[in-house]
Amino acid sequence: MIKVFIADDHSIVREGLKQILTDTPDMSLMGEASTGPEALSKIRKNRYDVVVLDLSLPGISGLDVLKQIKSEKPDTQVLILSIYPEEQYAVRVLKAGAAGYMSKETAPDELVEAIRKVSVGRKYVSTALAEKLAFDLDLETDNELHEALSDREFQVMCLIASGKRMTDIASELSLSVKTVSTYRTRILEKMKMKTNAEIMHYAMKHGLVE
Fold first, then answer.
1. Of 16, 81, 116, 197, whose CB has the highest number of CB atoms within 10 Å?
2. How far is residue 60's CA from residue 153's CA, in Å, rounded to a whole number?
3. pLDDT exceeds cutoff 70 at 140
4. pTM
């Protein structure tokens, strides 16, 4: 029996995942959380085979939760289930230790298959992402500007590119507006840009925002 834990701040998503797991004989939902701190607290106290984790969690971001899980419980497999497009976060979360990355638009049977796959220590990526990774390797191109950003800087950059205000970003990432502003300054410096408009243009060109 595969012991699954769900971390997502939307109750309707959790209920949908529960139904999928209930209908799957070899899986059992053993816990759930709606915030980053709650997820970490429960995962530290119990053993789960697979954690299905959203990236947008209140309190502590899903990316930070992932890093903590892999640091403290490296044998726990983490499958990211997110609204963000693969181009935006998939490579980063895989590098951070995630076993796979899926869109919330994925069909239920594909999600079940992904959970089975990562539960035995294998990686899951969609066919489209696998092709993109292979294509990028074949090109052997120089690193893109955004690859020089830290994970937090990349998060802030994507939120700026999606048109969110500093106050909204600060609230979503549980940071102060001053801290977000500092990240923005670093992003502009590293990417050799001067305005948010340039960030938006770059992100659209590279498929980092929808």
1. 81
2. 15
3. no
4. 0.71
